[in-house]
Design goal:
heterodimer; A: alpha/beta; six-stranded mixed β-sheet; four-stranded antiparallel β-sheet; globular; B: mainly alpha; 6 helices; 86% helix; 0% strand
Chain lengths: 250, 217
Amino acid sequence: MARMSVSGFYAYYGDNPALRNISLEIPDRQVLALIGPSGCGKTTFLRSLNRMNDFVKGFSVKGQVALDDIDIYSSGLHPVVLRRRVGMVFQKPNPFHKSIFENVAYGLRIQGIRSRSILSDRVEQSLRSAALWEEVKDRLNSSAFSLSGGQQQRLCIARALAVEPEVLLLDEPASALDPISTARIEELIQDLKTQYAIVIVTHNMQQAARVSDQTAFFLTGEMVEIGVTSRIFTNPSDERTEDYITGRFG
Amino acid sequence: MNRHFDVELQGLKERVTAMGNMVEEQLDGAMKALTDRDVEKARDIIGRDHQVNAMEVGIDEDCIRMIALHQPEARDLRFIITAMKIITDLERMSDLAANVCERVVELKDEQPVMIPPAIYSMAEIGRDMLRKALDAFVMKNTSEALAVCQEDERVNVIYRDLVRSMVQEVSRDPGKTSPVIRLLFVGRSLERFADHATNVAEIIVYLVEGKVIRHIV
């Protein structure tokens, strides 16, 4: 079942098209990896899925992006509500200058949840889902910045999970992390996909191959090819995909 | 973009081809030893089998190293997997050439018998299949590889006829049973040789098109 569905989607920065005629489906409980060289539009596409580009001056779109059949651009769905349902984790860990607990509770407090016991339950549940609970349970009131980079990134994932999204967007979530923290994030992605639709942008081909069920290859604003990851990495249909994943360009 | 990795892949291709050429020479030598009843030559070819074994191990290790260090994808990955599979078959083909030579050594003490033309036909077709399969590997030519696969059935038919005629030969003259059995083993080795050449050809279709045609064609 598709959780999100994109059809005939175009994105522009001013007059310049950054994405052209993208159509794809984001299946529930699967990981979709977006790969392609820098500037190919994959991050623009990812950010379009929860309207993060709305703040960019001159940015405009054409076409459809539907979340459970509701067009996120034309239906009047409030971007704040959309972003609760479609959470995002960025390349660089960006915890708030708050305690570990308050970082995770932040979105819940914005939703108006005040009950300490509900907050505690949800924080614990989110930290467990992000595979961080055991490491921080005894220091929830410490600053988020006392954590390592890998832990901070998992904290950001926990913060995204706390508001119970349906889709999780990951923009190169492990690119700033060491191999052990990267492996933890990848394991976490495998666990999380049993509950969420996940879209990940990555420059790391092996990471895309390891964690995703489907892979889409973007080039100069177009989606060249999408397919089951095992096929894309052993026998892609398009010569350009082949050249990119074998390191012949990009 | 030129990649250092391409130089390594080219080197791999050259080593696989060299191993294939060596196996081809082994088969030619084995057939010559059989024709000439040349036991010394036969022993020499049996002794050379370890060179092919060493090549197989060396290429195998290179492939494992390339996978570990370069983490190849798509056509690069298929190329390395193909090379690993080809050398496994080539090593077996070298063993089969050595098996023919072992029969040559045994036939020395047997009553002389005529070597049936079918045995030469099988050897010729088998060697041709290997050569064409290696050409298809170098040129990444699927149609040539598929043509090699078709040839295997010709060898099977010749082998079946050979078995039938040899059984008749033994019925006519039971005194020839021992040398005839040894010749049948030669025939069996050549039939298996062609099977391995077919395996090499089949994996080339995977190399070029990513399709596994084993047990299908």
